[in-house]
Design goal:
Blueprint: E1 9-14, E2 22-29, E3 66-70, E4 85-88, H1 96-113
Antiparallel strand pairs: 1-2, 1-4, 2-3
Length: 114
């Protein structure tokens, strides 16, 4: 799984402007994965995509924190503090069974929230 290495070129797409693609570079990657998610907004309960266990409150698989430095340019005015979006980091191969399992967990968590 390619989660990004120092110097990798990436593309950031803000949630509020998904048609906007902002290039950037990976400047930091945590040395080890963690199942503890620091920002609740990233979890299914907070509106994000990361499925967490209802028993432990931890992610079902380890995640890595990747910091990206966005390139300055005319798009800079569209960026605001706290903005969320997606960073496209190369390609990632995931078995269909694992993807379906994670999608099912996210669906169950969204149904539990109502």
């Amino acid at each position: 799984i390619g989660f990004g290495r120092l110097g990798d070129e990436v593309v950031f797409r803000p949630t509020s402007s998904p048609d906007l693609s902002i290039p950037g570079v990976v400047v930091r990657v945590t040395p080890s994965g963690s199942k503890t998610i620091q920002q609740a907004a990233l979890t299914g309960e907070g509106g994000g995509d990361i499925a967490i266990s209802p028993i432990t409150g931890e992610a079902n698989e380890p995640y890595f924190q990747v910091e990206v430095l966005l390139e300055p340019g005319p798009h800079s005015e569209a960026l605001t503090y706290g903005m969320t979006g997606r960073v496209l980091i190369g390609s990632r191969v995931e078995p269909v069974g694992r993807w379906l399992w994670r999608a099912g967990l996210r669906l169950m968590q969204k149904l539990e929230r109502g």
